[in-house]
């Protein structure tokens, strides 16, 4: 046999020795098994990302607060002088800020600030998107990962992240306004907000989709994204319908919640209403103390820094003392902390209403901020502990509705009260903070009347 014949025989043997069950399109070497994707769900990386997003969006609001207030004031001031003293000023930018502290201009500014919040909420009503929706959804996203005992701590950590952003963004806006006017800080604020929104797609889902699968047991890749989006939209609608769900439904119904949970919802509504005072405090302090708007940023910074120290040092110390001396469990400790911190809120509003110096107004802002931070964190945790685990997500939807309504009512109403107070010529300008103080007394009385069910306490 020749060499050529040997080669042909060898090739024939190679073809004949293959497995009859193999496919010509099947590779000889199997691909490596796909490694499971690493998901940061429930990890500290996921939580820190959400903290950063919420704090970044809040920074956007506070960076824009000072320059936009000054822009609104200058426009209202120019319109006033154009009607009463035509030709005195050529454009809004040429008017000295001190000339804009008259009652007519400040009254108009207060109304504009109240309407401003309604325009900020418009994208949420139309599309379910926007800054406030991102804050609300990420707030719930953070807390879905934690056990009951650590949920209040997570809420407080989120509040501290927001306060840190306020402590940084407000003086930054003041410096930019002092050196470059209002254009640069406004552009920076909107740029910051858009940049943070682009980070939201990196947040993984915290719930499993309940969509049906195909006959083969899996969804086609092209339909998975559509199903996810559809499930998200349907989930939002279901939460709204769940407010009035029947007894046989698995959704959360306001009418079927326990009195303690309903009391918590009322407290969060009042807290959100009173939190709207931060939107008028810049104009209020500038008018009452006769200082430039850019200088009011120092008050907001002092408020944020002192509140951070109190939340990180004082509140945990009180909590440890309550656990050691009274033998309280985590939920009972949270309830007592909420009672103590909310009791100082009326005093804070009293200082804001009667203060005539930077120190007194700053002290009032700190007391109100501490009460707001602890109320929002601790009362949410208490309400969560009193519902079954499968209803926590639905409860968050109800809480968000109550807080959104509180903000929608509080912002224009408090702004209108401020405008009425300025128009009356009252130097105290205390009407909006007086109303907030009365509501805080009511809220404090409710939290002292709340009793945890035995199953929750255990």
UniProtKB/TrEMBL annotation:
Coiled coil location: none
Keywords recorded for this protein, A-Z: Membrane, Transmembrane, Transmembrane helix
Primary localization: membrane
Membrane topology summary: Multi-pass membrane protein
Residues of the Major facilitator superfamily (MFS) profile domain: 260-458
InterPro entries with a match to the protein in the record: MFS_dom, MFS_trans_sf
Segments traversing the membrane: 45-66, 154-178, 184-203, 252-270, 290-315, 336-353, 359-379, 391-409, 429-450
GO cellular component: a single term: membrane
Entry GO MF terms: transmembrane transporter activity
Subcellular location as annotated: Membrane
Name of the protein in question: Major facilitator superfamily domain, general substrate transporter
UniProt source species: Metarhizium album (strain ARSEF 1941)
């Amino acid at each position: 046999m020749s060499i050529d014949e040997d080669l042909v025989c060898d090739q024939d043997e190679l073809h004949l020795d293959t497995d009859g069950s193999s496919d010509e399109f099947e590779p000889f070497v199997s691909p490596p098994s796909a490694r499971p994707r690493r998901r940061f769900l429930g990890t500290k990386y996921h939580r820190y990302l959400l903290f950063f997003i919420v704090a970044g969006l809040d920074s956007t609001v506070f960076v824009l607060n000072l320059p936009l207030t000054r822009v609104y004031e200058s426009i209202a001031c120019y319109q006033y002088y154009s009607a009463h003293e035509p030709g005195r000023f050529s454009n809004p930018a040429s008017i000295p800020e001190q000339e804009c502290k008259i009652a007519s201009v400040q009254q108009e500014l207060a109304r504009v600030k109240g309407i401003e919040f309604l325009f900020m909420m418009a994208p949420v009503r139309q599309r379910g998107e926007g800054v406030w929706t991102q804050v609300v959804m990420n707030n719930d996203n953070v807390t879905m990962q934690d056990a009951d005992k650590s949920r209040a701590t997570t809420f407080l950590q989120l509040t501290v992240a927001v306060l840190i952003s306020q402590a940084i963004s407000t003086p930054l806006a003041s410096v930019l306004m002092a050196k470059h006017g209002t254009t640069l800080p406004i552009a920076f604020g909107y740029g910051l907000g858009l940049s943070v929104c682009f980070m939201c797609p990196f947040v993984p889902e915290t719930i499993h989709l309940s969509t049906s699968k195909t006959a083969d047991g899996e969804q086609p890749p092209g339909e998975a994204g559509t199903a996810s989006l559809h499930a998200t939209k349907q989930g939002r609608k279901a939460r709204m319908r769940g407010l009035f769900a029947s007894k046989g439904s698995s959704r959360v119904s306001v009418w079927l919640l326990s009195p303690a949970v309903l009391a918590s919802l009322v407290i969060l509504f009042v807290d959100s209403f009173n939190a709207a005072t931060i939107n008028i405090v810049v104009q209020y302090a500038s008018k009452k103390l006769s200082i430039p708007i850019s200088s009011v940023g120092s008050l907001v910074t002092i408020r944020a820094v002192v509140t951070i120290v109190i939340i990180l040092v004082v509140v945990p110390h009180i909590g440890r003392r309550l656990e050691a001396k009274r033998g309280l469990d985590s939920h009972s400790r949270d309830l007592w902390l909420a009672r103590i911190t909310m009791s100082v809120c009326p005093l804070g509003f009293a200082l804001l209403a009667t203060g005539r110096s930077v120190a007194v107004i700053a002290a009032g802002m700190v007391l109100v901020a501490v009460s707001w931070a602890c109320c929002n964190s601790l009362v949410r945790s208490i309400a969560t502990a009193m519902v079954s685990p499968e209803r926590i997500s639905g409860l968050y939807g109800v809480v968000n509705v109550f807080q959104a309504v509180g903000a929608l009512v509080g912002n224009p109403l408090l702004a209108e009260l401020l405008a009425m107070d300025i128009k009356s010529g009252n130097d105290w300008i205390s009407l909006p903070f007086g109303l907030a103080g009365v509501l805080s007394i009511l809220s404090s009385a409710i939290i002292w009347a709340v009793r945890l069910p035995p199953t929750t306490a255990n």
